[in-house]
Amino acid sequence: MSSIVVVGAGIIGVTIAYELQRRGLAVTLVDRDAPGKGASYGNMASVAVTEFMPASRQGIWAQMPKWLLDPEGPVRIRPAYMPKLVPWFLRFLAASRPSKLRELEAAGAVLCQRVYEDFDALLKQTGLTQMLTAEGCLSLYTDEAEFKADREHIDILERFGFRYEIIGGNAIRDLEPALTTKIGKAVLFPDNRSISDPYKLVTALFERFEALGGRIVQGDVAGFEQSEAGVSAIRLADGRRVVAEKMVLAAGAFTARLSALLREHIPLETERGYHTQIVEPGISMRHSIIWPARAFMVTPTAGGIRVGGTVEMAGLEAPPDYRRAKILVKRAREALPELNAERATEWMGHRPALPDTVPVMGPSAKRRNVWYATGHGHLGLTYAATTGRLMADLITGIKPPVDMKPYRVDRF
Ligand SMILES: Cc1cc2nc3c(=O)[nH]c(=O)nc-3n(C[C@H](O)[C@H](O)[C@H](O)COP(=O)(O)OP(=O)(O)OC[C@H]3O[C@@H](n4cnc5c(N)ncnc54)[C@H](O)[C@@H]3O)c2cc1C
């Protein structure tokens, strides 16, 4: 029986570990924390199959100056971090050429088109189908001008055959009575469903992994033992070692630190995001909502209503700035005037972000027994089941059902 170590017990690492263990490999997960305590803990719970567009697309460039100048805007770059961001930003710029954008859209769409096939299979096998809600997501617009500004998004969806439905006037309030009458138009994305509790999904999958015989070692990965044949063991900060025949690095936004120890550069940044979990919101909702012009999201979850979003570029070490979370709640109350945010908790997480928006999923270009799964950005929950399936195919020598070239680690 072949043995494999998966570093990182977020939604990506746990899903890969579960799938490999299910296929008969002996898998050891390694994480410095308990499973699911990274970005996967507090994301917006959305299976966001309609959000695969490259962040470097034209519509974003048009908004960027306004966003950056507004201290309450949806994108914030901490001044001290700007010089460190230059190489990533240059690659982001390179990813905005029209021909490149078409390629990146296709690479994201191909994954999103198979998300439910893979998610349904995973949730069915693990007895977790009840975690996927039935309702879609409403995208909100005050007026025609706001809708037009988001038209590029809808055009891309149309090109790839994703479903949407334009809704006007009172029909919006029929769907979500808590919404303000200021919203004059909405688009319903019926396939943009959500997970009732993303953290519970990770822990439940982890339990299923353990039940199949999977192991976990808690420890901080600090280095690797290498030979001609590749990586032979993982060294933990406390001196322990974990022997590895094969290894997958899936440590979220921290993966580039580990790949650097193998002399493999991945241009990974953290796009820090925030949520506020409102325990007694005073309203009820069925759909999640996004308001593109205000750049926030609200999702009804098992533990109350979650408000989140924002992109803060400030690296892996800077302390959270919870003013960002408060701005999002203020915006959400513009859409949901009766929302009561008195009883709430705040959270910050690190989205693993690559400059071209497309994740890295595949073998190392430098070490023959190492694979990477990282850079899932805003869509790590969405892509989790698909990543587990594709990575397990690659590692067990089965031809994956999609062309994996766009997700290569050495594409930059
Ligand atoms: C505010 C916000 C909202 C989001 N909303 C959505 C959404 O609605 N839908 C969606 O699809 N995605 C969403 N995302 C993105 C999604 O959460 C991430 O893409 C996903 O969680 C990444 O999963 P991961 O397993 O790669 O990383 P993580 O969950 O961060 O896991 C990485 C793990 O690696 C471990 N690790 C790191 N370094 C080491 C080391 N040296 N040694 C040992 N262990 C290590 C960490 O402890 C951690 O457990 C959102 C993210 C944020 C922040």
From TrEMBL:
InterPro entries on file: FAD-dep_OxRdtase, FAD/NAD-bd_sf
Domain FAD dependent oxidoreductase: 4-394
Domain of life where this protein originates: Bacteria
SUPFAM superfamilies (alphabetical): FAD-linked reductases, C-terminal domain, FAD/NAD(P)-binding domain
Keywords, in A-Z order: Oxidoreductase
Listed Pfam families: DAO
Descriptive protein name: Amino acid dehydrogenase
Organism: Rhizobium hidalgonense
